[in-house]
Amino acid sequence: MSYLDDAVRAAIRPVKRGVEDELLARPGVIGVDIGEKVTGGLPTGRAAIVVYVRAKGPGHPWQIPPEVRGVPTDVVAETIVLHRAMVTRPAETVAAERHQVLRGGIGIGPARSFRVVPPEVPKAGEYVIAGTLGAFAVTRDEHRKVLGLTTFHVGCADDSWSVGDGFVHPSRVDGGVPGADEVAVLDRAALAGSVCAAGLWTGSRPVRAEVVDIGAVTGDAEARIGSTVRKRGRTTRLTYGVVASVDATIRLDFGGGIGVRTVRDQVRVHSADRFGDHGDSGAVLVDADNRVVGLYVAGSGRTGFANPVRPLLRQLDVELLTAGAPWSRRTGRGA
Predict the structure, then answer these.
(1) For the chain, which domains are there?
(2) How far apart are CA 87 and CA 91, in angstroms?
(3) Does residue 323 have a pLDDT over 90?
(4) Does residue 85 contact residue 92 with C-beta atoms inside 8 Å?
(5) Three-state SS at 105
(6) Which residue from 282, 311, 152, 140 is spatially nearest to 211, judged by alpha carbons?
(7) Residue 199's closest CA among 145, 260, 262?
(8) In this structure, are residues 205 and 182 in contact, taking their beta carbons and an 8 Å threshold?
């Protein structure tokens, strides 16, 4: 896969931003991005505005123009879904991990169950949810609370969420028990702009600023196109990918009374194999220097989408907890 020059992307970006809402309003369109135009299965070397659609073929109703303001378009059939796991009862889909000291990359889920009906699920009933606890952050206020980071659709799940909702590790999907396995409570959340995230207050629970199978978190950084990233999720464990774009705008169905929302400027990752799956939402993307660059939200097979980390930290009003930052729970501040 080749990657477009930064100057080329910078020139196309305002055009893409100017037309993406109009394109997203067309039937079947689920995303707009910047990428290399592919014709007949072969890359052309030309930069394009990429339009993701649910299906592609002659007679499709959206009629994407061949170019916009002199920039060619490329219509790509794609399925992009939120990657939380949701089941009617606990199932042995994954060997449950139990960590006395919380780390990034482990399974977590709400202690409460959710009433879900079709078409969001095949059969109406009470469902439980699993996602991933990605990394840890510290609030910027005087309380300096340690929060575990995950996605909005894992932390809030539906429109009945409230601050103080309990979370268990392992998740109820993996046999966690409300009360006995509670490790955190919902402290804050955001679903706007490029951010789909939640912060879970871990209270007195011991935490370690590292990600299982990856190591100590050293900081945060912007995702760089062409760079290799890793993520460790509850379901697929450790996977690798390459950053292909930082310009993806996608429409996601959050269900549960929240409905379809648009998230912008997402990090798009391609992998030679499956990058993520249901239950991996909330995992952090980490670069070669163990810096967090994104929060995994959704995907489709070998393609994954993630919030850029720095807007997420700003919107939640937190700073990333790193292995090099001394911390004292007795004082609540850096030691």
Answers:
(1) 6-77 (no CATH), 79-335 (2.40.10.10)
(2) 8
(3) no
(4) no
(5) coil
(6) 282
(7) 145
(8) no
333: DSSP letter: B
What's the rounded Cα separation, in Å, for the pair 205 and 162?
Answer: 21
265: left (phi over 0), alpha (psi -120 to 50) or beta: left
What is the rounded distance in angstroms from the CA atom of residue 62 to the CA atom of residue 45? 25
Long-range contacts, stretch 88-96, CB < 8 angstroms, 24+ apart: 88/123, 88/125, 88/126, 88/127, 88/128, 89/128, 90/128, 90/172, 90/173, 90/174, 90/175, 91/173, 93/173, 93/174, 93/235, 93/279, 94/174, 94/234, 94/235, 94/279, 96/170, 96/174, 96/175, 96/176
Tens-place pLDDT, residues 183-198: 999 999 999 999 999 9
For 10-51, how does the pLDDT look when each residue is reduced to its tens digit (9 = 90+)? 999 999 999 999 999 999 999 999 999 988 888 888 899 999
Q: Which of 248, 249, 303 is nearest to 271 (CA)?
A: 303
Per residue in 203-255, pLDDT tens? 999 999 999 999 999 999 999 999 999 999 999 999 999 999 999 999 999 98
CA neighbor of 189 nearest in space, from 164, 211, 210: 164
- What pairing do the DSSP bridges indicate for beta strands 291-300 and 219-220? parallel
Region label for 204, one of left (φ > 0), alpha (ψ between -120 and 50) or beta (otherwise):
alpha
327 burial via Cβ count (<10 Å: 0-12, 13-18, 19+): middle
